[in-house]
Amino acid sequence: MSQPKNIQEFFDENVSLVKEYIETKTTVYKLKATRTLSSVLGTLAWLIISAFFIFLLFIFIGLVLGFWFSELTGSFVAGFGLATLSLVLMIVLLTIFRRQIFIHPLIRIFIQAMTRDEEVAEESSKEYHDEN
User: Residue ranges of the chain with pLDDT lower than 70?
Assistant: First the structure.
């Protein structure tokens, strides 16, 4: 590279390099955002599917409890009433302890998903730089 005679020539020579650098950095940030978003969306999809299956589980548990209590009491109304009360009690307990059971673990899951992607990116970046 020849020595620039003045600042204008220096800028003229390096404008394309700066543009390429900015485009590369923009692409890297887009790829990082895409990776993080896809990881979070995958985790969210897994949580929604799990919630659906847990909902089905509660339905079947309610039916089993209803028929079991009906057998014990000799009345469908009393049996399913007791099953409903037990499920309402479970919902109240889950509501009271929702932070410990749901919110804090979900926060940990999302943080782990996001940091795991960053750690993988750092490791691959270190490997790339070590090779060169």
Answer: 1-5, 117-132
Instruction: Report CA-CA distances (Å) from 65 to 3, 52, 53, 71.
Output: 86, 20, 18, 10
pTM: 0.57
pLDDT of residue 131: 62
125 assigned to some structural domain:
no
Nearest CA among 85, 84, 67 for reference residue 76: 67
pLDDT at 32: 85
Domain count for the chain: 1
Domain membership flag for residue 67: yes
Residue 130 maps to a domain: no
**32 occurs within a structural domain:** yes
Residues across the chain: 132
